[in-house]
Design brief:
Elements lengths: L1 E2 L36 H10 L1 H20 L4 E9 L7 H13 L13 H9 L1 H12 L7 H5 E2 L2 E2 L2 E5 L5 E8 L2 H22 L4 H33 L4 H40 L3 H11 L2 H21 L7 H25 L18 H78 L5 E8 L9 E3 L2 H26 L6 H8 L3 E6 L9 H7 L3 H7 L3 H15 L8 E6 L6 H14 L4 E5 L7 H5 L7 H6 L4 H4 L1 E2 L6 E4 L8 H5 L2 H13 L2 E5 L8 H6 L5 E6 L5 H14 L3 E9 L15 H9 L7
Helix pairs in contact: 2-14, 3-13, 5-7, 8-13, 9-13, 10-13, 11-12, 18-19
Amino acid sequence: METAHNYQPSSPHSHTSQFQQLQPFYPADLQEPDDDELDLEQIWTIVRRRAVLIAGITTVVAAGALAWTLNQTPKYQGAFHLLVEPVISDQSQISGVSSALQTIGMGSVLPKQGLDYDSQVEVLQSPKQMAPIIQQLQSRYPKIDYRSLFGGMGQKGSLSIERLKKTKVLKVNYLDSDPEKIQFVLEQLAQGYLRYSLEDRKSDSRQGIQFIEDQLPQLRQRVDTLQQQLQQFRQQYNLIDPQVQGEQLAEQITTLQEDSLETQTSLAQQQLLFANLQQRLGLDPESALKASALTQSPRYQQLLNQLRDIETKIATEKARFTDNSPSIQALRDQQQNLLPLIRQEAQEVLGENISQSNTEVLRAPFQDSIRLGLASQLIDTANKIELLKVRNQAIGEAQGFFNQQVQQFPVMIRQYTDLQRELGVATATLNQLLGQREMLRVEAAKQDVPWELISEPKLVRNKKGKPIPAEPSVSKTFGIGIIGGLLLGLGAALLAERLNNVFHTPQELKDTTRLALLGVIPYSDQAMEVPRSRVLADSATKADFYYAGASPLIEAFRSLNANLRLLNSGNPIRSVVISSAAPADGKSTVAVNLAQAAAAMGQRVLLVDTDLRWPQVSSKMGLKNTPGLTEAITTNAAPADVMQQSPTEENLFVLTAGSIPPDPLRLLSSKKMQSFMEQWQAAFDLIIYDAPPLLGLADASLLAGHTDGILLVVGIGQTERSEVTQALDGLHTSGTPVLGVVANKASGYPMNAYYDHRRYPTAYQDQRSADPDAVPL
C-alpha cells in the first residue's frame, strides 16, 4: 500500500456548506406497526422457517386422533325420505292466483310456492307431535325418550330431520350402535309422519279465508268513500296534483317578484333620466313637443326671424332716438303686424288656438338638432314612465292575487294529504287482505295432498350387506387431527418466533424500523476473507476485473452505494457514519466493501476507522494499523501523512485507527478531529466513518452530528429487535439523522440471476477455474 501524502479537493463539485445534512428520519416519526398483526407473506415465511416444528406437532396430533378413533364404539345410521309436496304443481291454479294478485296490484306479495320447510321441521320435532311416536318406541326400547332423540342440556341427539338441498323431500336420519333398533325406530317414525299428513294436518286456513271475506265489503266501501271525497276536493279547488301546482305557484310568485323588482328599477332609471332631460331643456314634455314642431316649420321660422330683426333694429334705434320718434314707431308697427302672423302660423302648425296670454311656446328658443334629439328623448322617456307605472300596478295586483292563494294553499295541501294518506292506508289494507286470502286458498289446496314415502327406512350397508359405521369416521377424524395439528403447529411456530426475537428477513427489518432499506448483503464467507483488491492485484487481464465484478456480493455493495447516492439527488450524500446496534453485525465489513464499491464506481473515497476501541479496517484491508487517526490527532502529523492509498483503487484512501487511546471519545470530540472532517469534506466525494456500536457508546452519534447521517447495519438472524429499537431510540433522543438500514448476512436472500457466473461466457469460467481461490471482494 502507498501513503497518500497529497490529496486535493475533488472537482467539479461545488459546496456552499461543508456540512449539509439531511432531515433526520426516525421510526418514531411514523405510525408504529402493530406487532399483533401478521400478513400472509409473514406467516408463509414463518411456516417455511419452522417447518420441522409444525410437521412434528401435526404428526403427533394426527396420530393421537387416529388412535382415539380406533378405540371408539362404532355407530350406524339409517334414514328414509318423505316427499311432502307434489312434484308437478297445479299450474292452472297457480296461474289463476298470480293473475288475480296482479289485477289487484299485489303481484309483489305472491308467496313463494312450497312449504316453509324450517317451520315444518320444527313441527315434526315438537314434543306434541313426537309424543305418540315415542310411546310406540318405548314399547320395545323403554330408555328412548325425547331428549335421547333430539338431545338437550349438552347432549347430542340421535335423530335429525333435514331438507335435501332445494328439493321437496325431507330426510329423517337416526344414529345408534344397534342396527335392529335403528330399523325399528325409523319404521315407527315413518308411520307416525304419514299419519300426521293424512289425519292431523288441520289448520285454520279456511277460517282465515272466511274472516277475510267478512272484512272485505266494509273495507271496499271505505275505499270508495275516500275516492269520492278526493274527487270532490279536486273538482272544488280545480286541482289535480297540489304538490305540482304548489311548485308552479311558487315559481309564478318568484317570477312576479323578479318582474316587480326589474320594473321598479327601470322606472327609477327612467324618472332620473326624465329629470335630467327636463333640466337641460327647460321644458316639460308638451312644451318640448310644440317647440320641436315649430322649429321644423320653415314659414314660422321665417316670420320669427323677421320679428327678431325688427326687435334688433328697435334696440339699435332706441340708442339714437326716443320711443316717440317716427322711426321707432314704424318699427313697432311692423312688430305688431308680425305677431298675429306668427300666432296664426303657430296655430296652423300645432293645430290648436294660442291665446295672447299663452305665448310661452312662441318664446321657446330655437331647437337645433341636439335639442331636438333631447326633446325626442324626453318625450320617449315620459311615455316609458307611464308604461312602467301601468306595468308595476298590474304586477302588484297579480302579486296580491297569488299571495292570497298562497295563504289558502297550506290548508288545501293538508286536506289533500289527509285524504291521500287515509286512501293509501285503506287501499293497502284491502290489497293485503286480498293477497292473504289467495295465499290461504293456495295453502288449503296443498293440504289436500298427502305425503309420500319415496325411500323405505334402511341402514347404510356395504356390498356384503353389513352395516357401515357412520361414527366415528376414521378419515374425517384423521383429517380433523391433521388440521388441528397444523393449527397447533402454526401456533407453536408463531410462539417460537416471538421468543426468538431477531430479524429473520430484510423485509421484517424494513417493516419494523420503517426506515429506508438501502442495501441487502447476502451471507457469504467471502465477505470475511481478503478484500476484492487482492483479486484485482493478482489479475493478469482486464477480463478478471469484469468477472470479479459479476459477484452477487460485489453487486450488493454496488447497489448499496447507488442507493446511497440517489437517496437525495438534490443534495448528494458526502459523508456517512456506518455503525450497528451491537458488535459482530458486520459494520466494518460493510464499511470496507462499500468504500471499495464507491471507489470502483468513480468516486473519490476516504475510509476512516473511527472505532478506536476495536479497530477492524486495517486487518480487513491488509494494511498496517499504525500510524493512524490517533497519531494524527495526538501529534503534529498531518492526516495525509498517515493515510494509505489502495494500490488497485486509485480513488480509495484509508485512514486506519492507529494505536488504541485511553479515552477514544475525547479524541473524536476534539476540535482537531472536527477540523480534519471539514478538510476531508472538501477533498473527497465520499467519506465513510467506521464507528463503534451504538448501544452503550456515544462515538457514532457524536460523529454523525458532523456528517450527512448514520447508516445502521443489522445482522439478519443475529441482532435482537430490542437492541435495534433501543439504538434507534437513542438516535432519536440525540437528534442524529438516520439515512437508512443495511440488512447484513441475509441468508437465502434471492439474488438476481443476471449475476450468476454460470450465465457468463465459458472463457470467464475457464479463468475462474484456473484460480479457484480468488475471492471477488
